[in-house]
Amino acid sequence: MIDADDYLRTDFPDDYFYYIPWVMASEHRRQIHVGNMTYNDGEKVQIALQDDAMQSIANKVAMIANNDYKILIYNGLLDVIIPSSVTM
């Protein structure tokens, strides 16, 4: 398994990373105002947040719900981390 958001995906398609050469082109980098910053795919952030991902926020959701705020919870059907079966 390579993707916790879709357990059916066993490999990335050839065009999955098509955007990287586009982002690296000087003309596009000027257009999106990133200067000479190094491209980052977010893996370091994902690793840093790894321990926080499975922490319960039930008490926070309860506090929000008890104060009459509307709450929308969304998750994917193929999500391994938080499958829809545990949110019903």
From TrEMBL:
Pfam families: Peptidase_S10 (PF00450). It comes from the Eukaryota. GO terms for biological process: proteolysis. Coiled coil: none annotated. InterPro entries: AB_hydrolase_fold, Peptidase_S10. GO terms for molecular function: serine-type carboxypeptidase activity. Belongs to the peptidase S10 family. This is Uncharacterized protein. It comes from Rotaria magnacalcarata.
